Amino acid sequence: GAVVSQHPSRVICKSGTSVKIECRSLDFQATTMFWYRQFPKQSLMLMATSNEGSKATYEQGVEKDKFLINHASLTLSTLTVTSAHPEDSSFYICSAGTLPGYTFGSGTRLTVV
Amino acid sequence: DAKTTQPPSMDCAEGRAANLPCNHSTISGNEYVYWYRQIHSQGPQYIIHGLKNNETNEMASLIITEDRKSSTLILPHATLRDTAVYYCIVIEAAGNKLTFGGGTRVLVKP
Q1: How far, CA to CA in Å, does A6 sit from each of A21, B40, B67, B78?
Q2: Which residue in the set B42, B97, B101 is minimally distant from A49, CB to CB?
Q3: Contacting residues of B for A103, CB less than 8 Å apart
Q4: What gap in Å lies between CA A6 and CA A14, rounded to an integer?
Q5: How many C-beta atoms lie closer than 10 Å to residue A33's C-beta?
Q6: Given pLDDT bands bounded at 50, 70 and 90, which one contains residue A80?
Q7: Are the C-beta atoms of residues A57 and A77 closer than 8 Å to each other?
Q8: B46-71: buried (b, 16+ CB within 10 Å) or exposed (e) per residue?
Q9: Whose CB among A8, A64, A86, B44 lies 3.0–4.6 Å from B38's, allowing a Cys bridge?
Q10: Digit-coded pLDDT (tens) for A18-47
């Protein structure tokens, strides 16, 4: 079946630095990918829709200048958390629309210290 | 906002069937019912989906009421590895964004 690879699985960074998370579709092309954030014991919250070759669409309340999304190819979307702060510590998950259902990456646990 | 309502948690015995309810009373005619599950610290996993007919695959069965206002996901023989949060999601078509509600936290006990 379809596989979405997400890297890194875990990252610790210092406050004020930037972190890049990669999401790759391994055996299919994805013109659209989705980025979610999940805080402990909470549900997934959609952050943005990543569109290949065009600007991402952000959900209300998500700062597009802080969470930079690039979808430069049909198999790679990246999320960069800029000037990270401890409150950005969370579980970030990407997904791509596949049949019969969406395929999700394994997630990236970001800890900002 | 999520268009579905699920009980926050439920327990079930290993080897028994687990029946997970979902209410989606405002579902429209072209919206599908999708089920995903998320095992702790992993990305969600697709389980099954349906429009109006009951569906079955190797993981589960999906029973949708005739009026389509509710559905039940059935795990026929629950195992300890089925412990997860199960999400019922209503969506118009594949490719549209998924909105997750609170889900049901299922604990399978020996």
Answers
A1: 7, 16, 39, 29
A2: B97
A3: 46
A4: 21
A5: 28
A6: very high
A7: no
A8: bbbbbeeeebeeeebbbbbeeebebb
A9: B44
A10: 999 999 999 899 889 999 999 999 999 999
Question: Phi and psi for A2 in degrees, rounded to 5?
Answer: -65, 145
Q: Do A109 and B101 touch (CB under 8 A)?
A: no
Residue B46 host element (H or E): strand B45-50
Residue B1 pLDDT class (50, 70, 90 cuts): low
Angle value at C-alpha A24, between A78 and A74, nearest 5 degrees: 85
Structure-token match 């994805």, residue found: A30
> Using an 8 Å Cβ cutoff, are A110 and A90 in contact?
yes
The one-letter amino acid at B58: E
Paired tokens of A113: 């210290």
Give all strands of the β-sheet with B84-91 in edge-to-edge order: B9-13, B104-109, B84-91, B32-38, B45-50
Distance in angstroms (rounded) separating the CA atoms of residues A77 and A94: 9
Nearest CA in chain A to B57: A100
The DSSP secondary structure of A23-91, one letter per residue, reads EEESSS--SEEEEEEE-TTS--EEEEEEETTS--EEPTT--TTTEEEEEEETTEEEEEE-S--GGG-EE
Please judge whether B98 and A45 are an interchain contact, meaning their C-beta atoms are less than 8 angstroms apart: no
